[in-house]
Amino acid sequence: MTSRAIRNLATFTLQDGGGVPLVLLHGFPLDHRMWVACAEHLPPGIRAIGVDLPGAGHSDLDGFPPSIEHIADAVYRTMTEAGEGNAIIVGHSMGGYVALALAERHPGFVAGLGLVDTKSTADTEEARAKRLRIAAAVDASQTVDAVLGMPANLVGATSTEHRRNLFPLLDSWIRAQSPAGVAWSQRAMAARPDRTAVLERLDAPVAVVVGAEDTITPLAEAEHMVRAAGSPAGPAMGDAALTLVPGTGHMSVVEDPQAVAAALGLLHTHVVAHH
């Protein structure tokens, strides 16, 4: 058996500041750039670090089999080796799956959890089969053509009508990804378990954010996570807060970065108070 070392991931300081940082984990098939506009709207003084997950952006795959758990360990290792004692982990979509895995595997590191347009449940058999089909198609073509149609589903109806500029932006981000990374990520997501119980056990503030027009991880999934994490009237200044972002779909982070930044700023405040 060959031993492989977990490689550190590429990280980017999106806003300078002090104290406990926000660590921003991107969705699929994107990279840290999806968080840039949101970070610009954060309250000043909050440190924000964008991470490219394995096989995305500037982070290479490191030979490990596809798994969300491996991504979580790679994020944890990257952050602790950079000297971070703890962090508020914020994940969008696939990044949310990673955030939940990180909270499960390294709970002491997670000072707070931000779950944006994501879910704690596992894939249905149908969704899992579709992911594996797409991974196979990407492998066969050695292109990302199989996922180029995604922006039409990622943004909401309001953005489709009024934010047409997002389409070329999302398209350019997707085209920049490696086929190997796209296929690996699909297989990692397909294999993930239900992590609702992680939210039930977590002793840290949780913020759940969802676009009102999100059809991929809709409001019902967000409400499921809030219920699991505890009621908004809970002890830690609201152990679970739900923010519904009007006029946005699954990409609320880029459709209305200001609204998402406000929710994350509030989460940061709750974490500081909780500590």
From TrEMBL:
<dbReference type="InterPro" id="IPR050266">
    <property type="entry name" value="AB_hydrolase_sf"/>
</dbReference>
<dbReference type="GO" id="GO:0016787">
    <property type="term" value="F:hydrolase activity"/>
</dbReference>
<dbReference type="InterPro" id="IPR029058">
    <property type="entry name" value="AB_hydrolase_fold"/>
</dbReference>
<protein>
    <submittedName>
        <fullName>Alpha/beta fold hydrolase</fullName>
    </submittedName>
</protein>
<dbReference type="Pfam" id="PF00561">
    <property type="entry name" value="Abhydrolase_1"/>
</dbReference>
<feature type="domain" description="AB hydrolase-1">
    <location>
        <begin position="21"/>
        <end position="257"/>
    </location>
</feature>
<dbReference type="InterPro" id="IPR000073">
    <property type="entry name" value="AB_hydrolase_1"/>
</dbReference>
<keyword id="KW-0378">Hydrolase</keyword>
